[in-house]
Amino acid sequence: MISSIANILLGFATAAPGTTPANFWMPEGASVQAPRIDFTFEVINWINYVFFAGITIALLYLVIRYRQRGKNVEFSPGPEHNTPLELTWTIVPTLILVGIFFMGFAGYLDLRTSPKNTYDIKVTAQQWAWEFEYPNGAKSTSELVVPQGRPVRLIMRSKDVLHSLFIPDFRVKQDLVPGRYTYMWFQSDAANDPTDDSDFHWLFCTEYCGDSHWNMNVHVRVFPQEDFEKWTKEQARWLDVIPEEDLYFMAGPKLYARCATCHTIDGSDGTGPSWGPRDGLPALWERIVSGKGKVSGGSKFIPGKTNLSDYIGDGKLYLTPEDYFKDSIYNPGALLVSGYGNQMPTFQGQLNDRAIDALIGMSRNLDEFNADGTFKDQAKLAEAEARIAEAKAAAAELPVEGGNSGAVTD
Ligand code: HEC
Ligand SMILES: [Cu+2]
User: Fold this and answer.
1) Ligand 1 pocket, 283 CB below 6 A?
2) Does the C-beta of 128 come closer than 6 Å to ligand 1?
3) What is the chain's mean pLDDT, rounded?
4) Could you tell me the residue ranges of all domains in the chain?
5) Is 307 near ligand 1, meaning CB less than 6 Å away?
6) Does the C-beta of 328 come closer than 6 Å to ligand 1?
7) pTM of the model
C-alpha cells in the first residue's frame, strides 16, 4: 500500500532499460529527454504539495486559534511591519522562482537544440493526416518508425492550418505552422518489439481548433537499428513486391486510407464525391468510362462544356479514362466535379504509377470492398500475403552481398 502510494507520487517503480517509470501524473517516459522534464515537473509539483500543506495547516490553525469567543469583541491594532518576515516572504519565493526558471530554461534549450548527427525525418501535416518521409524516399502515413539510440530530428511543415505534434511518452511537443519549418528532436533508447503491432507510443495532434485534429493519432515505434534499416527499405518498395493482379486489393485499401477522409465508397456524401453510385449516377469507374456526370470549373474547364464526356476520348483533353483518373489525383484543380469545391490536395510526387494502378483497380472492383475500404475476401488477402512472405524468405536465403559483416549501407 505505502509502496504503491510512493510509486504513484514519486515514481519509485522500476522501469525497463531506457525508460522512466510511469506515475500518477506521467506516462512511462521513453526518451533521453524524459528524466529531466519529469524532474522539473516533480520539483514544481513538490513545491506545490509543501506549500499547499503548509498554507492549509496554517489556515486551519489560525481559524481555530482566533475564532470569535463570546459576544464581546475587543479589537486591538495589528502589527504594521515586520521587516524580517517581509524579507523572508519576498526572498524565498524569488529564489524558488529563479531556480525553476533556470531548470526550465536549460531544459528548453536542450529540447530546442538538436545534436549534430541527427537522423532527419520530414513531417508534413495536412487536414487530417500526417506524412513521414525518410531519407531513402520511404513514406509512411500510418505510423512513425524511428531508430533506437539515435537522435531523431523531425523537420516539420503544414500544408494548411496549425497542427501540433505531441508524443507524450517522449515528452516532446511542437507546433507545425503553415509557411514555415519547425524542428523537434528526441532520442529513444528503449526499442519496441518490431514483430508486435501492439507495442507502440502514441503520437497526437493537440490542435483542437478544427474539425478532425482529434483524429490525427498514429503510432510511434522505436526499432533496433537493423530492423529499422530493413523497415525503411521495405517501406520504400512495398508496392514493387506486390504482383500486378493483386495490387488492387493488397495496395488499394492502404492507399485508399489517404482518400477516405473525403471519398466514401458506399455512395454517402463527403468533402469529395463518393466513389460509389451517387446522385443517380453510376459508381466512379463506370461514371468515368461512360462520361456521365457534370463538371463545373477548374483551370482546364472549357465554358459551355459541362459534361464529363466532353473531356474524355479521342482528341479530347483526356485520351482515356485512366488519364482522367490520374490527372484528377495529380492536378485536382484542373477539372472540378460539379457540386464540389477545389479542396483535394495533389498527390503528385506521392503516388507513383503503380499506386494509381492500384487505385484504379480498386475503383473498378468496388463491390469487392466493405464500406470502410477493407477487402471482403480476407482468405484471398491472407493467401496473397503468404505468397509475398514466402518470396521474401526465399530472397533472404540468397547470399548477402559483401558477406554477412553486418555493415550497413544505404
Ligand atoms: C481533402 C479531401 C480529398 C482527399 C483527401 C482526396 N480527394 Fe479526391 N476529390 C476531392 C474533391 C472535393 C473532389 C471534387 C473536386 C475535384 O474534382 O477536384 C475530388 C475529386 C476526385 C476525383 C474525380 C472524381 C469524379 O467523380 O470525377 C478522383 C478520381 C479523386 N478525387 C481521387 C482521389 C484519390 C485517389 C484520393 C486519395 C489518394 C483522393 N481523391 C483524396 C477531395 C479529396
Ligand atoms: Cu492537426
Assistant:
1) no
2) no
3) 89
4) 2-62+86-112, 119-236, 244-393
5) no
6) yes
7) 0.62
Distance from residue 182's CA to the centre of ligand 2 (Å): 15
* Predicted local confidence at residue 238, as pLDDT: 81
**359 CA: nearest ligand 1 atom:** 35
pLDDT at 368: 96
* 311 close to ligand 1 (CB < 6 Angstrom): no
The answer to whether the CB of 259 is under 6 A from ligand 1 is: yes
Reported confidence tier of residue 394, pLDDT bands at 50, 70, 90: confident
CATH tag for 244-393 (out of 2.60.40.10, 1.10.760.10, 1.10.275.10, 1.10.1610.10): 1.10.760.10
Best probe residue, ligand 1, of 216, 259, 275 (max atoms within 8 Å of C-beta)? 259
Cα–Cα distance measured from residue 187 to residue 31, given in angstroms and rounded to the nearest whole number: 5
Q: How far apart are CA 246 and CA 361, in angstroms?
A: 9
pLDDT digits (tens, 9 = 90+) for 224-262: 999 999 999 888 888 888 999 999 999 999 899 889 989
Strands 139-140, 143-147: pairing is unpaired
119-236 has which CATH code? Answer: 2.60.40.420
**If you measure from the C-alpha of residue 260 to the centroid of ligand 1, how many angstroms do you get, rounded to a whole number?**
10
Residue 90: CB within 6 Å of ligand 1? no
User: How many angstroms separate the alpha carbon of residue 272 from the centre of ligand 1?
Assistant: 6
271 contacts: CB under 8 Å, gap ≥ 6: 261, 262, 340, 343
Per residue in 152-185, pLDDT tens? 999 999 999 999 999 999 999 999 999 999 999 9
**Residue nearest (by alpha carbon) to ligand 1 atom 27:** 337
